[in-house]
Amino acid sequence: MKHIKTINKANLKETAAKGGCGKCQTSCQSACKTSCTIANQQCEANK
Amino acid sequence: MTNTIHRFKQGEDHIIVDVNSGGVHIVDELVYEMVGCLEPPLAEEMPESLIGELKKFPEEDVRECYAEIYELYKDKILFSEDEYRKYADIAVKAPIKAMCLHVSHDCNLRCKYCFASTGDFGTGRKIMTPETGRKAIDFLIEKSMGRQNLELDFFGGEPLMAWETIKATVDYARSVEKEHGKNFRFTVTTNGMLLDDEKIEYINREMSNCVLSLDGRKEVNDNARPTPNGKGCYDIIVPKYKKLVAGRVNEGRTDYYVRGTFTKYNLDFVEDVLHIAELGFDQLSVEPVSAPADAPYAITEEDLPKIYEQYDRLYEIMAESVEKTGKKPFNFFHYMIDLDQGPCAVKRLRGCGCGNEYVAVTPDGDIYPCHQFVGIDEWKMGNIYTGDVDPKIADYFAKTHIYSKKGCSDCWARFYCSGGCNANGFTYEGDVRTPYKLQCALMRKRVECGIALAVKVKEANAAK
Known about the structure:
The structure holds two protein chains of two kinds. Chain A has one helix and one strand; from the N terminus they run βα. By secondary structure, chain A is mostly loops. Chain B contains 15 helices and 15 strands. In chain B, helix 6 links the parallel strand 7 (149-155) and strand 8 (183-190). The chains are: A little secondary structure, B alpha/beta. Strand 1 (4-6) of chain A pairs antiparallel with strand 3 (23-27) of chain B.
């Protein structure tokens, strides 16, 4: 494409189908403890 | 503007986020302008009105751009629909797999912004006994059911004031985890005052992460984080942090954070981020204070422009390093966004896990939804000695997600913050399901910077 460059896999919908396994870190157990940020965590099922 | 996409400019880049697929696109000015004129569903034929709306661009280019946009739309990575509500609708309470263990409701600092009333959470100064620590392990093993990875954060107050309890708890967990098929991950959040060689060695051996509190520049830190006799702690803690972190770095580890808090008194907090980096630390988190609006140090709406400016400045510094060296100069917690391997969509519906898969436990064994609810009677969920956990509160939090929280389903950042901090909603908006507006504003800004930085890193990697 000339005007648009897609940067990533854009696969959020695919992750929903097999998601919710619970292996990953609980997001409040991170550095923040006050300002919940979740998108910086990794999926552990795909490790 | 539709809530299926978000467009923003960061530095020279025009960025479009497709909210529901997680797609991130770098576009030229024409596409950037055009998506602002469009609402789904898109037709294959370009609406002729676009020619007039975008008359400063050549018609041929307008048609070409629309064709590209339509292609991405057909691929469901632009203007894609939200298909996740069905997962939220069937949300039920989950096994408890994470615990914030308040081993100490006492503290050896008197931080001026402490949300825990200088350590005792308003419930009296107490240290957890080793017996209660071990009981907490039994409780977590039982309530985690089939979950294998269990997290336990030693918290306070200052947790190192309960060092014997920490060791007893960890040693007990290690002695029983295999027979129960569990994998304990311990973390500690400390102010560093009591660190010594023995504790550093133990923490580096047993703790999968540690959070080391430091607010940045000496004068900023010492003003906010004095000892009970009014002296600063910077000179005491920084050498200890260096020693602890060196032990990890020597093993190739990056699993620590030097974490600071910024307040109205240091709205130029990027100076503090840079100062911590200059000390040799490269895993950083400097975060806005959580405080009622009438506190003199509280961040208020009038501070937002200055804070945005600081976040932009930090982005520019980090982006420049990526462009020059191919990598970030340090990790900044709030700018860490993985565009490809992040959490699944189901996880993103209700981020923190508070009151559902995550609880806080006090020195007496009382259970609360999280550390920030501790001491508020109406949120007490039970006690680890009886083993009962209020199913109504757990179910309430299980059903607290981006579709039940006020305004989240219309916000483009919903899959990055997952509804924000429940405790902040309760404390500052009077309702768990009403996100704290000020935090939302800051979160959206940080997510923009984080996405833009992730784009820079991706492009640098692609150019290698």
